[in-house]
Amino acid sequence: MLLFRNSNNRKRRGLPVDVGGDPGMAIRNHRFTSPLSSAWEGVTTLAEMFERACKVHHDRLLLGTRELIASEIETVNGRSFEKVHLGEYKWLTYRKVFEAVTAFASGLSKIGHVRGERIAIFAETREEWFIALQGCFRRNATVVTIYASLGEEALCHSLNETEVVTVICGRKELRALALISGQLDSVKRVICMDDDIPSEASSVQHGWTITSFSNVEKLGRENPVDADLPLPADVAVIMYTSGSTGLPKGVMMTHRNVLATVSAIMTIVPNLVDKDVYLAYLPMAHILELVAENLIASVGSAIGYGSSLTLTDTSNKIKKGTKGDATALMPTVMAAVPAILDRVRDGVFKKVNSKGGLSKKLFDIAYARRLHAINGSWFGAWGLEKCLWNFLVFRKVKAILGGRIRFILCGGAPLSGDTQRFINICLGAPIGQGYGLTETCAGATFSDFDDTSVGRVGPPLPSSYVKLIDWPEGGYSVNDSPMPRGEIVIGGPNVTLGYFKNEEKTRESYKVDERGTRWFYTGDIGRFHADGCLEIIDRKKDIVKLQHGEYVSLGKVEAALLGSHFVDNIMVHADPFHSYCVALVVVSHQALEEWASKQGIAYSDLSELCRKDETVKEVYASLFKEAKKARLEKFEIPAKLKLLSDPWTPETGLVTAALKIKRDIIRKAFSEELSKLYAS
């Protein structure tokens, strides 16, 4: 169980509220009596919000991109890696971006786009993505967002189901598009964000007209067209989730839906102003990043683009001795998924442990002192001691992310208490941990900046009601003691229309109550703390009944076992025909190799090391320790393990772009290994 230290229970963060719909316990944000739809008077769409921001902040910097100075291929142990040397950020002001957006919107009309046609953006996060999105909004075109890492089958499904006519993509994604062109039913136009269009993607070969992004802008400047602005109820985005099960589903989001979440988060993030600088590197096809960039733009802040592979000076793709994105940009605000923050934490601890000696002792003392201070009070007077530890120890850790981070928005998956504390201590910054889904435009709850408890996701956002309803089959009730528990249901203006061309699934997951409030049934299980904050404790789909009747929550067990330093990723599997569960463990290369070196164990490669009995025994002991720390029952602890050396990445199709495991796909991919675990 997580320990909720200094959770400020005396301060009410969420309050009970009487709402319609299924009976249960509902909570609202303590500062708002009814859900917030817009934070700006007269602004009802994302297009209006962006135009307002450009008029107010026209000479401030908005979009920044690093110049590629050099790229080379390095070969290590027979494997090739691209290394890049990137320059400083080149910036566009709000005025220049708005000119580019209006030109691109006019260019869309010039190349033949007509009202009602859908446009897909299929690319990595970059400034052209943002410009294209805002340009589409000015033509009232619904944007279909597709992850750059999506596989061929899911890509075909997304484009064909939505009958996309125009695809906007990068050079790399264009190659992927060309491979499946014969399977696409409706694509007529392709706009490449890069000027050097690959020859294999020619119009003649694939039956589409193809042009560059810069050419569309040029056509628009030469042939300006009046904007065709959307209404609040118009669909802004059909967002295809990367999906943890089966083919992706397209979630229909109106301008009103997304605007509600953007407005709500703006009221929560402390002192978000036009002097802030945001580092954008998460997939913009993910609702967390799409909301974050629109939020940053709405207040006049700057957005600098990067990638997860070039984030820090030691990132995989950064040439040794050159700057990563964070060092070059020095952001003040960033969004993150827990997997990214876990990697930062693990990297720091690895470096500290490898140095040893006085450096490690100083770090350990400083960390313990800061932890004590935070557990006492976040606003405790640390005075000279705080300054001393900052100078001696934490200054170098802060420099990893540029040295100026003051706030981190975290979402997409549960954040471990250890990582949250690491960020609080080493970066000296609060984390706003949020809970939401694509179906709620990422909006549901968001932790207050002055709440130093761990393991919780805060009170409802100002745009949402959050309600718990009984789930008798799982044994959860709003009448449970000491806290009400149940399935989490979210209502408010940020709740989306439903799934594109999937009325059955929409009816199953969405309901409109007698008062007109739209609710989404999440399938997640939560409990309310006395101060109105939510904690996620289970998921309906992740619960499996074992042979002797015990229920195992796979997600809960995985979250606990991820605390082992040997684990990079893990999937726990339970079979109703057996009395125990098993696990597939993707090992941390660094941790396992360091252990093997200390033990004097010889091996030819990591896969051989993973097969050794002593390795499995060591990793199992580490998992068992984490399980006991989390107070797991005996039947919840995996009885057998299979260690895997190859990482699970979005490119392998085994995890989503937000790095959540795709349970069904992993189960099928490793069915033989799972069968052997149960047979042995």
Automatic annotation (TrEMBL):
<protein>
    <recommendedName>
        <fullName>AMP-dependent synthetase/ligase domain-containing protein</fullName>
    </recommendedName>
</protein>
<dbReference type="InterPro" id="IPR042099">
    <property type="entry name" value="ANL_N_sf"/>
</dbReference>
<feature type="domain" description="AMP-dependent synthetase/ligase">
    <location>
        <begin position="82"/>
        <end position="500"/>
    </location>
</feature>
<dbReference type="GO" id="GO:0016020">
    <property type="term" value="C:membrane"/>
</dbReference>
<dbReference type="GO" id="GO:0005783">
    <property type="term" value="C:endoplasmic reticulum"/>
</dbReference>
<dbReference type="InterPro" id="IPR000873">
    <property type="entry name" value="AMP-dep_synth/lig_dom"/>
</dbReference>
<dbReference type="Pfam" id="PF00501">
    <property type="entry name" value="AMP-binding"/>
</dbReference>
<dbReference type="GO" id="GO:0004467">
    <property type="term" value="F:long-chain fatty acid-CoA ligase activity"/>
</dbReference>
<dbReference type="InterPro" id="IPR020845">
    <property type="entry name" value="AMP-binding_CS"/>
</dbReference>
